[in-house]
Amino acid sequence: MIDLYVARPVGAGFEFLVLRRSPQGRSPGAWEVVHGHLEKGESPIEAARRELREETGLAPSAMYNLSRVESFYLPRTDEVAMIPAFVAFVASDAEASLSEEHDAAEWLSVDLARSRLSWPRSRRALDDILTLFATGDAGHLEDLLRLC
Predict the structure, then answer these.
(1) What pLDDT is recorded for position 12?
(2) Residue 57 to residues 79, 125, 134: CA-CA distances in angstroms?
(3) What pLDDT score was predicted for residue 122?
(4) Which residues, in sequence order, are CB contacts of 120 under 8 Å at separation 6+?
(5) Is the pTM here over 0.90, yes or no?
(6) Domains contained in the chain, CATH given
(7) What's the rounded Cα separation, in Å, for the pair 105 and 100?
(8) Is the pLDDT of residue 63 over 90?
(9) Nearest partner of 35 among 112, 90, 101, judged by Cα
(10) pLDDT number for residue 43
(11) Would you give the distance in Å from CA 59 to the centre of its chain?
(12) Which of 28, 67, 116, 146 has a C-alpha 20 to 30 A away from that of 139?
């Protein structure tokens, strides 16, 4: 699995894209970030790019590794999933087109996104994004974190 946070510049900060799960799938009504499974032979970075395109129709102007991996227990299969996290920056006027997985999308300030997101790991990752990209890029860590 992967988590991908989508951010666009606004003023001196960012807005974050949050997506509401549609009634037909898992966790109906839950607000999430772009999230998905790796396909056979796919790297986490490739999965993040594909999920961004499939779930939002967006292309990143820059994409970064957030240098965090969350774990999640899957009781149905009795497995522990490791979930690397990424952030994709898009144009300030970017608008998402929804897949069938979601029935709503909103661009929110960090505080509103934090209050809306269903998963605690997503709320924690927002703090990392604000810390790592406070200057608009990853600063001294740019060479390690930037993917494209």
Answers:
(1) 86
(2) 31, 23, 26
(3) 96
(4) none
(5) yes
(6) 2-145 (3.90.79.10)
(7) 12
(8) yes
(9) 101
(10) 97
(11) 13
(12) 116
Distance CA 34, CA 23 (A): 17
Structure-token pair, residue 131 = 């810390």
Q: DSSP labels for 71-119?
A: EEEETTTTEEEEEEEEEEE--TT------TTEEEEEEE-HHHHHHH-S-
| Whether 86 contacts 48, CB under 8 Å | yes
Of 39, 59, 54, the residue nearest 99 (C-alpha): 54
Confidence at 27, pLDDT banded by 50, 70, 90 = very high
Both tokens assigned to 134: 């406070």
Query: Does 88 have pLDDT greater than 90?
Result: yes
Across 26-41, average pLDDT: 96
Q: Rounded to a whole number, what is the distance in angstroms from the first to the last CA of the chain? A: 20
Would you say 49 and 43 are in contact if contact means Cβ atoms under 8 Å apart? no
* Amino acid symbol at 50: R
Q: Write the single-letter amino acid at 121.
A: R
CA distance 93 to 14: 12
